[in-house]
Amino acid sequence: MTESHMGISQQTLVSRGGETSARKLPQYIAGMAATLGALAAGMVLAWSSPAGKNGVNLAKEYNIKIDEDDFSWIGSIFNLGAATICVPIGILTDIIGRKKSMLVLVVPFTIGWALILWSNSVGMFEAGRYILGISGGAFCVTAPMYTAEIAESSIRGSLGSYFQLMLCIGILLTYVLGSVVSMFTLSLIAAIVPLVFFVVFFFMPETPTYYLKKGDVDAARESYRWLRGPDYNIEGELTAQREALAEADRNQTSFLTAMRSKAAIRGLIIAFGLMFFQQLSGVNAIIFYSGSIFEAAGSTMDSNISTIVVGVMQVIAVFVSTLVVDKLGRRLLLLVSVAAMAVSALVLGVYFNLKKNDNPVTEDIGWLPLLAVCVFIILFSLGFGPIPWMMIGEIFAPQVKGIAGSSACLFNWLMAFVVTRFYSPVDAALGSDWTFWIFAIICAVGVAFVLLVVPETKGKSLEEIQVELGGGRPSVARSNYSDKV
Known about the structure:
Elements: H1 25-46, H2 56-62, H3 68-96, H4 98-104, H5 106-117, H6 122-150, H7 156-178, H8 183-201, H9 208-213, H10 217-228, H11 235-250, H12 255-259, H13 262-280, H14 283-288, H15 290-297, H16 303-328, H17 330-356, H18 368-382, H19 387-395, H20 398-430, H21 432-452, H22 462-469, H23 477-484
Helix pairs in contact: 1-6, 1-7, 1-8, 3-4, 3-6, 3-20, 4-6, 5-6, 5-8, 6-7, 7-16, 13-19, 13-20, 13-21, 13-22, 15-16, 16-18, 17-18, 17-21, 20-21
């Protein structure tokens, strides 16, 4: 998703600053300001965890009757909101710009939190969560797009990784606050974060790429000067960007023609498959309902503490992933990730089965659910969390990347809705043991999918990846390219 609308030119830009190198600090400031939106989205994602099993804490505090089915809708409808906005937000960013689109998102954020803060019915909670899904899902498209377009090539990877990191920090912050404050206070704090984002991000520049797409070279030049510093010669980078955009326009072919190509079809199979296994692994059920899972498991550790530990592990794992993904490769990390997730889900299923049958051994292994969930989250965050999004930017040709990437994003949120909406009913009908065994089986199938279908893209140019997906073999130029990079 990161590169769904950013254009191929971002892959080829080079800095030509002469003797004066570009300043990195302004780029980091702008990137961090943008990812405050990811922090806000992360807090929305994890909000239902402190609400307790089937929303018992929420129901008690607001004096509203919330049954199991009601709470599954409150927790899951966020995903439908996010799915709704995936394609429209990509169009909006091309019309009014990346910056204005992100600032506008503060409006639905504020409306959504207001509905939740002063809710007096399940319907108001659901409406608030749906609207928050629209704003949170839109940030999942716009923030990575913005950071990718403002950063020079030498720091684009690290700056782009801040989005996932800030998203996880938002989840952790919700876990921590949820253990010490009321749901109303938690919601109030979460509602303030988008306003802080608005104030900070208001002073950041629009991306040079957007200005160049609109033909406003002078505005693009000013944006580059803000981001690179007044002493840096931005003309070389500006010229390279203009030429790359012009080349992309010249090579534009019919969308339908491009979508019928073998490379595009294989790319869609890979993208949709990765998104399917990412969500059907059960990760959102664990993130959304981690507190409930630990309560049901009868863990000897306080469920709030256990949830916080999970959040900390997730943040650390995402940070580590940004350091190793270009060294170990996408495919290896995906394989290790999904295999470990299968084992973790299997272990959770076994624990719940033992507990259901009143096996006394569960009293001695009350720590096992926490360990299994931590391993699951850590390995998910190392592989199947960030890499599917990363590969979407690598496996699609420029002609189809925008719509193909948005459709994969839409599919992802729909799958997330299915898991979060039906986790509680399935858990009630089949039991926690069989619920996690189903997740384990899906992860095991995911191992086969990665082995048989997913290619390794590390060290390959976008052109080489398209050749391989189309059934051809990379030329000897690949080794030369790899040596250069």
